[in-house]
Amino acid sequence: MPQVIDGKVISACIKEELKERVAVLKETRGMSVCLAVIQVGKDPASTVYVGNKKKACAYIGIDSLSYELPVETTQEELMRLIEELNHKEEVNGILVQLPLPDHIDENAVIRSIDPKKDVDGFHPQNVGALCIGQPGFVSCTPAGIIELLKRSGIEIAGKECVIIGRSNIVGKPMALLLLRENGTVTVTHSRTRNLKEVTRRADILVAAVGRPKMITREYVKEGAVVIDVGIHRNEAGKLCGDVDYEDVAPVCGAITPVPGGVGPMTIAMLMYNCVEAGIAGKVPGTDRKGNCL
User: Fold this and answer.
1) pTM for the whole structure
2) How far apart are CA 24 and CA 231, in angstroms?
């Protein structure tokens, strides 16, 4: 049987560490940490995600401000709110829940957030910093995957790492983080030829393709570590990932389940970024190695 990488347990450990850290900051520096969360419209999935983020803030001791805007909110109105939050000293992090309604330009919204408060790690300045190894916020899901691997005792350095998917939120930053940990990285996508041959080289396979149960044992080298980023509902309404867990588990060495694998880590690393934003005058820390301090 493979090692099951339990994201619930690992994320709980990170939250405990952050809770203690926030308590020390309040006691020794009189400093609080505050996250502003903006949601436009009432997409059910977004509402669940926002609720989970608020609960995590409350548990750790991070103050949260909630802005629930109607779906007809204009881009100009949203940008004005972000600009106000950019200038509020008590606000350390700003999160705009995606996706946004079709009439709002997501890229323009992301660019309008102060990079020092961009706890999602989506701003081009933070993405560029990651590319050249400079301090900045890192996208939460890829950062969470690095934590999963490290805290599960899985060595990255020197390993053949293959990512299926090239999105700006997961695939591309995941490649950069694995490179930073001295992995040998290949990024595959819909135009990759002989995909199964490429993925079967992987010691560490990260599936972020967005297709339910696409990855079967034919894609996986025996003994590989398989990280499933996908989350979907099957015909019966049950959650599943990009990986066919039942088919792949018998041949791999370690695997993340869905649910309970990567998902909890995304929120844990968002909380980590918030705490980092609250330190040293709201400037991201200089130790940006994806490790919880």
Assistant:
1) 0.92
2) 36
